[in-house]
Amino acid sequence: MDLATLWFLIVGFFFIGYFVLDGFDFGVGMSLPFLGKDDTDRRQIINTIGPVWDLNETWLIVAGAALFAAFPYWYATLFSGFYLALLLILVALILRGVSFEYRHQGRSPEWSAAFDRMIVIGSAVPALLWGVAFANIVQGTPIDEAGNFTGTLFTLLNPYGLLGGLTTLLLFFTHGVQFVALKTDGELRERARALASRAGVATIVVAAVFLAWTVLAHLDAPHAMLIAALAAAAALTLVGATVANRAGREGWAFGLSAATTVFAVSTILAAMFPNVMPSTIDPAYSLTIENASSTEYTLQVMTWVAVFMIPLVLLYQGWTYWVFRKRVTRASIPVGAAH
């Protein structure tokens, strides 16, 4: 395996980690209007991700930095061509982060309700647009000979792209609601389980169509069997997560939901390989792992850094989740407190 392929896998690993971790953050945020019967419920829901949401978002920063360093031409084309979509994601993430911090600063229901709406919007927009973006990367976009994206935002809003966005929206929503069931108690836990069951069925239907479309569109790929196997694994774990949730096994449901995200994103990455930005104008204009990567020396230095830093990051992330592993109970929310 050459270094360019290795770094494609490493960048993919960072994006998988981001979607697994910030994915359930998005789902928790989107669940507020469905599960929050009163302010105590909503505070309990938000507090399930309170200690970890900002740590989860750092995976996106690392993924973006790794993409910039390892594949500068891919980074340039992606971020210039998808500029408006990625800007909307960034604004939504800022709104969500601000809302987590400022929701408890006011002393009126209207103040909290306004920031709750911002949390929902700031969670739903990235959940939708990330799916749209990656679906379009797989399908291909109009890229000219100079590597410039020649389309617009509306170019990305095609049937396959929108289906990809709806898939990630529902997948992250279900993933987040299962996390709420795992981390809360009492009536809220039961409501979360019931909602996860209903959302799981809708997710299975939409994800099955998207994954089948992806597999059928890449039947002539050299690694078509790998794409099909990953898609099948995503489907099986998604069904397993829904079954486990119905059986009241929240830990298994959440774990299988996380596995679904891993396999689904891996399906996308496998379908991309080796064309990281396929051109619909002329296949010769496509960006590949080889022509979009940095120099061999740069990749060598980055590899040594990754060898030492990635295990430390994983250990710290695991320790954080271990420290905050207990359920957030309704009794732990002080009466009259703002957050």
Automatic annotation (TrEMBL):
<feature type="transmembrane region" description="Helical">
    <location>
        <begin position="251"/>
        <end position="273"/>
    </location>
</feature>
<feature type="transmembrane region" description="Helical">
    <location>
        <begin position="160"/>
        <end position="182"/>
    </location>
</feature>
<keyword id="KW-1133">Transmembrane helix</keyword>
<feature type="transmembrane region" description="Helical">
    <location>
        <begin position="119"/>
        <end position="140"/>
    </location>
</feature>
<keyword id="KW-0813">Transport</keyword>
<feature type="transmembrane region" description="Helical">
    <location>
        <begin position="301"/>
        <end position="324"/>
    </location>
</feature>
<dbReference type="GO" id="GO:0009055">
    <property type="term" value="F:electron transfer activity"/>
</dbReference>
<keyword id="KW-0479">Metal-binding</keyword>
<keyword id="KW-0249">Electron transport</keyword>
<keyword id="KW-0812">Transmembrane</keyword>
<feature type="transmembrane region" description="Helical">
    <location>
        <begin position="194"/>
        <end position="216"/>
    </location>
</feature>
<feature type="transmembrane region" description="Helical">
    <location>
        <begin position="222"/>
        <end position="244"/>
    </location>
</feature>
<feature type="transmembrane region" description="Helical">
    <location>
        <begin position="6"/>
        <end position="35"/>
    </location>
</feature>
<comment type="similarity">
    <text>Belongs to the cytochrome ubiquinol oxidase subunit 2 family.</text>
</comment>
<protein>
    <submittedName>
        <fullName>Cytochrome d ubiquinol oxidase subunit II</fullName>
        <ecNumber>1.10.3.-</ecNumber>
    </submittedName>
</protein>
<keyword id="KW-0560">Oxidoreductase</keyword>
<dbReference type="GO" id="GO:0046872">
    <property type="term" value="F:metal ion binding"/>
</dbReference>
<dbReference type="GO" id="GO:0019646">
    <property type="term" value="P:aerobic electron transport chain"/>
</dbReference>
<dbReference type="Pfam" id="PF02322">
    <property type="entry name" value="Cyt_bd_oxida_II"/>
</dbReference>
<dbReference type="InterPro" id="IPR003317">
    <property type="entry name" value="Cyt-d_oxidase_su2"/>
</dbReference>
<feature type="transmembrane region" description="Helical">
    <location>
        <begin position="81"/>
        <end position="98"/>
    </location>
</feature>
<keyword id="KW-0472">Membrane</keyword>
<dbReference type="GO" id="GO:0070069">
    <property type="term" value="C:cytochrome complex"/>
</dbReference>
<keyword id="KW-0408">Iron</keyword>
<dbReference type="GO" id="GO:0016682">
    <property type="term" value="F:oxidoreductase activity, acting on diphenols and related substances as donors, oxygen as acceptor"/>
</dbReference>
<keyword id="KW-0349">Heme</keyword>
<dbReference type="GO" id="GO:0005886">
    <property type="term" value="C:plasma membrane"/>
</dbReference>
<keyword id="KW-1003">Cell membrane</keyword>
